[in-house]
Amino acid sequence: MSTKAAGIAHLTERAPQVSGAEMVAALVPPPQFDGATFDSYRADPAFPSQQEAKDLLMTFSGLGQPAAKGGFFRRAKKGPELKPGVYLDGGFGVGKTHLLASIYHAIPARRKYFGSFIEYTALVGALGYKNTVELFRGADLLCIDEFELDDPGDTMVMTRLLGELVSGGTRMAATSNTPPNALGEGRFAAQDFLREIHAMAANFQTIRIDGTDYRQRAIDGHAAVLTESEYERTTADAATRGLVSDDAFSAFVEHLAHVHPSRYIRLIDGLAQIGLRGVAELDDQSAALRFVAFVDRAYDAQIPIRATGTSLDLVFGEEMLGGGYRKKYLRAISRLVALTHE
After folding, report:
1. pTM, whole model, 2 decimals?
2. Sheet arrangement for strand 85-90
3. What is the CATH number of domain 35-211?
4. If DSSP codes are grouped into helix, strand and coil, which group holds residue 238?
């Protein structure tokens, strides 16, 4: 395919830069959850924990009972005392992010933020720990999607940050596929950080949400794979309607190593479709994890993916799927299947 074709971009040629101010401005729910509410969350009657979680989170957001005098976040003297944070634990595709966005939209706070775990840690890297604490100090609500700890440094930074903010009155809501006491298991020497992990968990009321992956309910089988001719045709056709990308999978995965994950959202800025040629199984875990982070951003933006080669749900080998990052890979597979069928 000609690289001169109108409407076609190459992600390997993009080197996006993001300022601290832009990173802060982006701390809002993804476009697909702009209108997420508790009313639009459809609890599956086969899994009562979904309705139970919804009811509890409505109470946490001030919708389950009248707010007490003296401020929105102050609770009445009677009734159980909720912890300053709620932690939604469950498998992928059960609506955790929808519920998290519902909390964000339901609470009429003056200062509230919504971002992925990686966005918050990237902000600390860009602004420095002290400046990040000052930025969020006094905030009413912090929503953290996909709370996952991949290294001891993240453990220390996030537990310190959350501890300081909670002591100042900030409320927290987080989602994850792993209960807070189990963060880091199978990834690093978690026992060395048990005190920090448990201190963080003490600030959260864990809410378990069971269910099946809603993305798989209407889709059966693997991610869609195109032949070379189909890829050429669909890419050219899509390029007449908007900007689409076209990259060799191996070169693209290598390029991700040179772009900070907090900037992946800028890699796909303005795209109507992502194209990956010659997909193959990944054999490097660092590369695989970077690809997972990219998939998360593509899914947040709801950008369809068209690909040739190996089915995208098979890029993570059995050894990877059997390791400590299994849940991250399974979430990515679920999202890849959905995006290739968009």
Report:
1. 0.75
2. 112-116, 141-145, 171-176, 85-90, 204-209
3. 3.40.50.300
4. helix
